[in-house]
Design brief:
By secondary structure, the chain is an alpha/beta fold. Helix content is about 20%, strand content about 30%. It starts with 5 loop residues before the first strand and ends in a 7-residue tail after the last helix.
Amino acid sequence: MQEYRIWECLVCGWVYDELKGAPEEGIPPETRWEDVPSDWLCPECGVGKNDFEMIEVRVNSAVSASAQQTSEPEAPAAPDGTIHASGNFARIDYSRAPIVIIGTGLAGYQLARELRKLDPHTPLVMVSADDGHSYSKPQLSTAFHKKRSPEQLISHTAREMAEILSAQILTFSRVTAIDTSARTLMIEAGLQNQHLPYGKLVLALGSEPIEAPVEGNAAGCEFRINDRQDFQRFYTASSGAKSALVIGGGLIGCEYANDLIQSGFQVHIVEPQTQLLGNLLPSDAGGLVENALGRAGVQLHLGTTVESINYCNAGVEATLKNGSRIQVDRVISAIGVRPRTELARRSGIPCSRGILTDRLLSTEVTDVYALGDCAEVDGHNLCYVAPLMAAARALAHTLAGTPTPVFYDNMPVHIKTTLCPVVVSPPPRDIAGEWHYTRADEQGVAARFSGTDGQLLGFALAGDACQQVAEFSEQAPPMMQN
């Protein structure tokens, strides 16, 4: 009998054991990976079986790696922040100019993985402003309910990633300038500064939270959770806290509210629009999410904003524009993110909303590329997992010598409001059209967005209507035309 295998999601690290199956996802024990339905979605990050890659790992390898992570100390970093790995680097051709990736988030590490499949020889250097550990960013907004600490979110340490990728990883190192004419980076690491040459440079800088414009003596106390270090700060500060205010009722805010209310917090959401997820969903779909969160205990304050936050007893008091006052222990600001472009702008690399690239992910500066949240690819700035993965695969081929343009097909967004699941394929910004419901009841909402010419441009599914995602996705147009 064939041995049962274990598979790991490359996006979030979720593990599927064929022997155990995933009964909570409707997959019985002893189901082989090839027998998992083609429309299956990863329960952690929402990626699809046919769109994204799982890697097979042997059972004894998984146990060994886990034991190593808990018992073997992290390799020390050199003064310049370099992680020294013990992996086999013999195949690296150091006569070649290195490919340098700035950023070790999902974009940076996924690109590096894809690149190493195609090019095991070119030196690869990755620069990280933090500890460089690999983790799934989508898990940040589900961690409390799943009782995961910041340490448990880590899928691989920086040392392990250096070994996996045969790469040099510079941790706690910040790029302060790019000299594109000399092809050199200026890096600040602690009290030391160094110059790092590159042959090809990739900017995987990610995005940064937008700060909520509030006044009061507690202004600035809000937590903005955009990476694992941010989550660490909130996780530590939440000890003993019983209530939280979430500023913003968009995708990020709804996910955190959904997570916290199921973790025992008393939760308030303040949203300036008159419905939740107003930039993504038609009113009936947004209403379904509101009802689900409301039944769970979330208190909604719609059509108003937070004007001031002041310290009050052991917590804070928020004063809203409509005159209401809310006392809570902690505040999360989740009003949105913007691409990190400052380094590119200072270095003369053209930017608009994001760092401007063509479909080859190439900027106007020779041998400088960008991908992920920081990039505006042929007019598209999409801060979601699916476009990032497509871009990583395409750019890896380009860096390996085969120019390959990225193509964004229809890529629905799975919003992790588990109390009321949502899948949406947003229509293009500022395009004329209307939502048309094909279903709208207490259990589910399905709607199509059609342009003035009747062409389908997007769709929204909420509640149990999410089961129709395959059908709607087949009919929806690609995000990139031509």
